[in-house]
Amino acid sequence: MTPKQIRVMVLNDMEKLDRTLFRLDQGFELQFRLGPTLQGKHVHVYTNYPAEGELFERHKFHALDWINPTGRQDDSDKFCTLDLKISGSYQYYFGHGDKEKSGGGYIVVDPVLRVGADNHILPLDCISIQTYLSKCLGPLDEWLDRLRVAKETGYNMIHFTPLQMLGESRSCYSLADQLELNPDFSPAGQAYNWTDVGNLVEKMKNEWNMLCITDVVYNHTAANSKWIEKHPECGYNLVNSPHLKPAWVLDRALWHVTCAIADGKYKDRGLPALIQDHQHLHAIRGVLWQDVFPRIKLWEFFQVKVEPAVEQFRALLQSGAKPGRSNTDGKQQLKIIQDPQYRRFGNTVDMDSALETFVPHGSSPGAIEDCCNWLRRRLDELNNEQFHEIKHHQEQATNCIDGTVSYERLADHGPKLGPVTRKHPLVTRYFTFPFEEATLEQDLELMNQPEKSCHFLAHNGWVMADDPLRNFAEPGSNVYIRRELICWGDSVKLRYGNGPEDCPYLWAHMQKYTEITAKHFVGVRLDNCHSTPLHVAEFMLDAARKLRPDLYVVAELFTGSEELDNVFVTRLGISSLIREAMSAGDSHEEGRLVYRYGGEPVGAFLQPSLRPLVPSIAHAMFLDITHDNECPIQIRSVYDSLPSSAIVSMACCATGSTRGYDELVPHQISVVSEERFYSKWNPQAKPSSPDEVNLQSGIIGGKLALNRLHQELAAKGFNQVFVDQVDEDIVAVTRHCPSTHQSVVAVCRTAFKNPKHHRYTDEVPPMCIPGKIEEVVLEARTVERQAGSYKKDERSINGMPEYTVEIKEHIQMKDSKVVRQAGVTSRGRSEYVQEIVFEQLTPGSVIAFRVSLDPKSQELVGVLRNHLIQFNPLYKAGSLSDPNTPDILKSTLTQIMSKMTLADMNILLFRCDEEEKEDGGGCYNIPGWTALKYGGLQGLLSVMADIRPKNDLGHPFCDNLRQGDWMIDYVSNRLMSRGGTLAEVGQWFQAMFTYLKHIPRYLIPCYFDAILVGAYTTALDATFKHMSSFVQNGSSFVKLLALGSVQMCGVGRFPALPPLSPALTDVPYRVNEITKQKEQCCVSLAAGLPHFSAGIFRCWGRDTFIALRGLMLVTGRHLEARNIILGFAGTLRHGLIPNLLGEGVGARFNCRDAVWWWLQCIQDYCTMVPNGNDILQCPVSRMYPTDDSKPLPPGTVDQLLYEVIHEAMERHMQGIEFRERNAGPQIDRNMRDEGFNIVAKVNPDTGFVYGGNRFNCGTWMDKMGESERARNKGIPATPRDGSAVEIVGLCKSTLRWLVELHKQGLFPYNTVTIHKDGKQLSVSYEEWDRKIQEKFEKMFYVSHDPNDPNEKHPELVHKRGIYKDSYGASSPWCDYQLRPNFTIAMVVAPELFTVEHAWEALNVTEEKLLGPLGMKTLDPDDMVYCGVYDNSLDNDSYNLARGFNYHQGPEWLWPIGYFLRAKIYFAKKLGKETYDKTVYLVKNVLSRHYVHMERSPWKGLPELTNENGQFCPFSCETQAWSLAAVLEVLHDL
User: Fold this and answer.
1) Rounded Cα gap, residues 1199 and 943, in angstroms
2) 25: which of 272, 1239, 1317, 1491 lies 20 to 30 Å off by Cα?
């Protein structure tokens, strides 16, 4: 069962993709997902793909339903879906809010073609098509004899030029009646009809396995079509398109010049009927400028009659008329109104604009006269401008006429038409003229007689370098007057208007024509597609698809731009675009086209079945020659026909040719003038017979072999292509099958120049073919034979009898005449290479080899594929079972990995270079490129995720894999050295890699990728099974963040946590490798990678407990969280938890906030973990039972956790005051002496914890100045002394919780006891809690009242409606700085805030501090704000040097979590509307984090960014608290 193919289209706001091609197959599922710009918004997606059971209607759209598989609040997995079952072009668009359309595009679903009596599928890449000019097939009863040539040459599709009745020019594309079968197909006494044609087509489909398509021509009809005489409104005539009158006048004048030249009237002016040189051209110019243009005065059609206009104006002025302002937009500019009927001097003046522009100075006759004179002058100017404009048009017309005459009568490559006659006029007429010849003046009178002028119909043609989306016959185009049209004088351009209502007869007529075609043919070629109005082609193809849903549509586009091509391909649902090999000037370009038009590179990666929808180029129908191309025998040489055909046949797309190419017809078969018939098939035909052919004629025998090969390669899945330019004439094309690893290599020696006259080298470089050559599929060359020379036959289209193809098929190398095998070499153990030497690869010859892997490699690939089936059923094809499967591979990887812990997963998946080095290793380094981010699988997968979708096989990573086994061995050895389950996984890799190492090197990247992707996804599945249901049922984003827990939580070589009490149960142990003693191995939490990941700098009290809730409690890692809480509890000293842990022994107690974050985590543990309150009774092994004790071994002094908690609270109330041990440069080289003095106390009036001084920084904003040059060394940038707002909030939260615990009988203490002035005092927890509650809002809120009695420093207030960052700072202005810290207090102690004040403060914060990924750490309006952190910069700037502004503007990520959680909490209090808006904001902000994580090779979120989300090179690439804070937001949602 192959997995369903799903493509994902990510929608981005304002992204219009209507010029981007997205191709899909029937049976695919298309999912629309929201990009970051749309997440959180109420987006509606509409499509005209029909709903189940309905018919397609282009203008009927319906909305798709959203599916949210995880039902979660973030939008990372939300999608809506289309099951694609019907081919065609479909539109989608989406909008949100009041914007109905904020983006959209098209998708094209390919048709499925079926052939044969059994209706088997013909894949589009299998198509080999041959074009026939229908008029050369003779009577219908002789068709099969002529078409049999295509069948016997191996084609499986025929393209007929139109089968309708032709116009008088006999051009295949000028149709006199779109509904009538060409009467030429019916011999005397017979009257064949469309049913007979249909029967013949059906017979070919069932008996010959051949499909048929034909052209539809929508753009024009033959000039002599009877129906257009009855319905002249169907063309562009002078009645419905009066803007063409000036062009028609010029056209008639040019016709009269033709007559005059033909009649010899200009002979005396040096212009004879036979134009032979440039002097004659010069004479034509003279006639145009001296006789024609002055006589027809085209400018008059665009001018105003001045005097009547001035008189009308004068009358208005005299009557005191005022301008109607509404008509002039109040702009003072004279407006001329173009006469819609285009009469001479028919233009008029907009009198409102005249009155507005020319205002008299008074009402006296003199003033009015002045005004009239101004108008007269301006009108003369405007008329003069029109005169010059027309002069420019006439100059262009002259140049175009010159160019046409020069090409048609003088140029060597032109038709050399001979003398000017009425049959071969000077230039083709642009309009029909169905009346008797008369004088020019008489002709021009007809222009004003509608019953006659409606029959002057504009011809069709094409315009060089014109915009194909513009209709050149509509108003606004000057193509006809400038004579820029290369005109088809036999065809009339059809005028459809904007829809059927504009020309009912034409639309109905053409719809009927389309339906006849769709009824009998599987497909259509849109003739002249780039000039067919899009809405017309859309309408007609819709009608065709109603009758034949799997309509195959091909077209040739000459827009010159892929983007413009896509407009046609996407809107019309074109299945294949015709591409010409003849467009290549040399063999190199021809090879490049093969590479361009299809297939993946050899050794491409297996893409997942669910993957992004990527733009594609249109499917190609690659033809060695089209019926419009010039003859390649004339342009190149007869010897090139076979090799160029072979190059085309090797392309991984539809291919084909035109009848005549294979017989070597040495001239172009003209679609206009050719009237002879094609030759018939006769196996016994004589070489000299002009009306019969067989396999010996021309290159037919070679083409048969090539067509068979082309179809076999496509049918058997040889969809990988490699093109090698061996030398300037030799192209080698490889087609490779990714499941069997068979290849076919065709070596083609082109002969663009005739070998008879051009010296080709005899030296052909030898080739190395990797693998084992099974056979020579074919070798062929064009040779001369004795059969007389070519003479053009009168009745049959005959080829050159003197050439045939010498061909051998399916022979062994030893029997080849073209090559000999030089020998087998073995490059290393897995490179089996055969060198071949060319004996006789003469110009014009082709050889193709079938190549397999050598037998050993073939077997090992099969076994490897067998072991990969556990990850992807697609590997079944080409798999083999292995009788000697090693034991480790007998169980599935899922079984092995199910025994792994999350700490094992940390090693398997992650670990940055610093962590690896601690174990004596390091991350894998790719020479000449870079080292991987992780030693584990994620390091490799991050790189492969970039390489895989692009198949970037030239990447240094892939090079490294091809060149040696270093990376392969690194993966398995790194794990095997670990022991335990990790070693088993290492052995599994090693066993898989044993197969991998013995297959050809070019295949190693794709199989290495397959093994790693399988292992990685298995590891992720096993990881999430260990986590909480929130993670297991969570969205992709939740899971990505939860992986951060695996990334950050690990066990190093040296335990980072101090040992826990021996009395504690469920503590993990291991045997130390060096001492062989049992030691604890608890997981610890790194602060960030790579800077805070190993050694003494891994564990920080503050970072650990800010991150612990998100990374461990929310993810369900309860036991490990417990151990970390208790481990830190054991290090409590002075009533504080350490900042830098240093295993407890080297701890620094220099922060005031870590203890409060620790207490918050214990509270969270109790509330979130089942039976969480049990932790309060856990034993804590005190390392420092007194402030001055030496570190004691575990188990010496144990206390229960609740006692340690109570001690921390009591010590604060007592007041903490000490000097750090070892104070001085040995523990801090920047700190000033006063900074080592630590203070933390409680204010008895407010209950607020306060402390610190201006020389230390005891909160998370802990940057210490380091620059002597800027004089900031030893001065903290943000001391935040006094009462920091988040500490007050955390303290309040703890008090509220302890009061509650006491009430529940879970905490024995309700008061703290302290000693003051020799007396013992008690303060109850309830009283302390109440004090903070009463004082907080008064002391911290900055109110709008300028006379607020609580405000100590009103002069320092610069923002109102916010909360202070601190209270009682030594520098009072610091209290008033807007920073994001108060949002932390809002989350942990929301009861301190009034809802309205909180909401206003949050809105100010959002406006001022919210960045793309993080929160600005300081108000940008503050004078010391600087948003760019550069730790290496040392200059004279006090505020910047050595990164002094670390917390003075740069955008830190973790506070955004608290900001968003506060928003959610208070929004809920404010009602549904506010809450919905907030959810949108949250989703929108978080979508940026999701995108960042998806793209980040670290799969993490950074510590901080510079302003506006810019990358900061000094930041950790992934930070524990950043990941945790964002995960907590999703948990809250």
Assistant:
1) 50
2) 1491
- The string over 1280-1305, giving b where at least 16 C-beta atoms fall within 10 Å of a residue's C-beta and e elsewhere, is bbbbbbbbbbbbbbbbbbbbebbeee
Tokens of 749: 């020696």
Residue 534 identity (one-letter amino acid):
L
User: Which H or E element spans position 309?
Assistant: helix 306-318
Q: Helices in 1304-1324 by DSSP H: which ranges? A: none
On the CB side of 434, how many CA atoms lie within 13 Å of its CA? 17
Q: How far is CA 597 from CA 591, 650, 750, in A?
A: 10, 11, 20
Known catalytic membership, residue 1187: no
For residue 207, give the DSSP letter: H
**How many other β-carbons are positioned within 10 Å of the β-carbon of residue 283?**
17
| Tokens 């010959």 -> residue | 208
**C-alpha separations of 214 from 520, 522, 538 in Å:** 10, 9, 18
How far CA 431 is from CA of 492, 497, 1314, in Å, comes to 8, 19, 110
pTM for the predicted model, two decimal places: 0.88
Strand 348-349 to 459-463 pairing = unpaired
What are the helix and strand counts (H, E) for the chain? 41, 61
Select which of 467, 502, 628, 1187 is catalytic: 628
Q: Which residues, at least 6 apart from 1248, have a Cβ–Cβ distance to it below 8 Å?
A: 1242, 1283, 1288, 1291, 1332, 1335, 1339, 1367, 1368
- Single out the catalytic residue among 177, 251, 527, 1365: 527
Give the integer Cα–Cα distance in Å for 1263 and 612.
44
Beta strands 1179-1181 and 1198-1200: pairing type?
antiparallel
Give the contacts of 760 (CB within 8 A, at least 6 positions apart).
729, 751, 842, 843
For position 830, what pLDDT does the model report? 59
Q: pLDDT at position 822, please?
A: 67
Q: Is 11 helix (H, G, I), strand (E, B) or coil?
A: strand
CA nearest to 611, candidates 18, 106, 31: 31
What is the DSSP-derived secondary structure letter of residue 110?
P
What is the rounded CA–CA span in Å between residue 958 and residue 972? 18
3-state secondary structure of 1200: strand
Out of 159, 530, 619, 1026, the active site residue is: 530
pLDDT of residue 330: 42
d(CA 153, CA 658): 12
**Secondary structure class of 839 (helix, strand, coil):** coil
In 3-state terms, what secondary structure has residue 730?
Answer: strand
| 628 labelled catalytic | yes
1430 tagged catalytic: no
Which among 945, 999, 1036 is positioned nearest to 607, based on CA atoms?
945
Distances (CA, A) of 541 to 83, 218, 562, 574: 22, 11, 22, 10
Distances in whole angstroms, Cα of residue 1031 to Cα of each of 169, 502, 831, 1048: 75, 61, 46, 17
Q: What angle do CA 114, 117, 123 make, to 5 degrees?
A: 25
Backbone conformation region of residue 926, classed left if phi is above 0, alpha if psi is from -120 to 50, else beta: beta
